Amino acid sequence: MDTNSGKHLGRRAGAAMAAAVMAGPLLVASAPAGAQQATQWTYASGWPKEHVQVGVVADEWIRRIEDATEGRLKIRHVPGGALLKSEATLDGVRKGVATCGPWVTSYKPGALPITTTLMGSMDLDLGNRLDLKGIMAINNRLFNEFPEFRQEFEKLGLRAMVWVPTAPYIIISRKETRNLDDLKGQKLRAFGSVLPKFQQAMGAVPVSVANAEMYTSIQTGVIDGAMTDAAQMVTARLQEIAKHLLVTGPTDGTYLAGASVVYLCNADAVAALPEADQRKIEEVTVGMFDYIDKAMSDTSKQGLERLKADGVTVSHLSKADLETLHAKAPLFDESAKLLDERGLPGTRMAQRYRELAEEYLSGRWKP
Which of 110, 132, 215, 309 has its CA 20 to 30 A from that of 158? Predict the structure, then answer.
């Protein structure tokens, strides 16, 4: 996930929301005498409610939980960084500043090595054949099958609840960009640990540029283009200054191996709920697959159509280009080896990922 990807064009939460946030205990609210007391949680996000990946999807998750628990659990959504900035979510949820919040998995790779190293990497073959639902399903299966994956969160006092993948990252440039040859020497905005390697394999030059500085950096020639998802390109208005788009594959482009965002909850807060309500939350979470798939896919398609309508030309990497890239940068296998070196089951997880992917693609497994 790029830090503003998937956002609708609504206004950010204003000062009124910030003023409404109250300090103090977040788990239990007072109730009238004789009434059943509801448990109160807070979901704190650094983005606006209109942000699809962490706002719109979160509101649907919250609604379903409140319905499933028949009002015994109430969750207040505090957006716009009024309670927690995006980079502070992990520590804020751990410390109980908020009960839950969305975490961008690339923010602290040292704290969550499996999540960021392997699941945040790319398999250039499967990444062009899987869809969002398949990626979510595989992510959840691996999380359930490998205790080392779960323990990354448990040792921090956290529960990983909802995994939300992002749309494929694509390239927008002010230069004509139709294939790998056109990318040679182009300076592209990069972030994280995976995308720079991918860009270098394509012959481009990765340049670290903040999300908020993409527009001016392209406009002034500091960089030639940027690699992010279509919805974020529209949000940042990059189509005004860059008219050439290259999709990182013959279809929709290369998805990351896993989800780029996870909704985290304080483990103690979850454990304090009645077991029956904990099971209901788990059922709601698994039942979100189809909703998330549609919400994220629709947003990506709408972003791409807007770019086309604004005069951006679209080209695709060929299968041959992808095979060339895979030979230069086997990112998924390299990530697995890095985990092996740390005593983690990198290769075993990579093998299991591929098994599950083929079962999903063949129709033998229908989550």
Answer: 132
Q: If you average pLDDT over residues 160-173, what whole number do you get?
A: 93
Q: pLDDT tens for residues 80-120? A: 999 999 889 999 999 999 999 999 888 877 889 999 999 99
Q: In this predicted structure, what is the pLDDT of residue 2?
A: 65
CB 169 within 8 A of CB 227: yes
β-strands 261-266, 225-228 pairing: unpaired
Write down the pTM of the prediction.
0.84
The answer, yes or no, to whether residue 309 has pLDDT greater than 60, is yes
* Confidence (pLDDT) at 1: 65
| SS3 readout for 153-213 | HHCCCEEEEEEECCCCCEEEECCCCCCHHHHCCCEEEECCCCHHHHHHHCCCEEEECCHHH
Task: Give 23's DSSP letter.
Answer: -
Fold of the CATH domain 170-255+302-362? D-Maltodextrin-Binding Protein; domain 2 (3.40.190)
Q: Residue 347 is encoded by which pair of tokens?
A: 């290769």
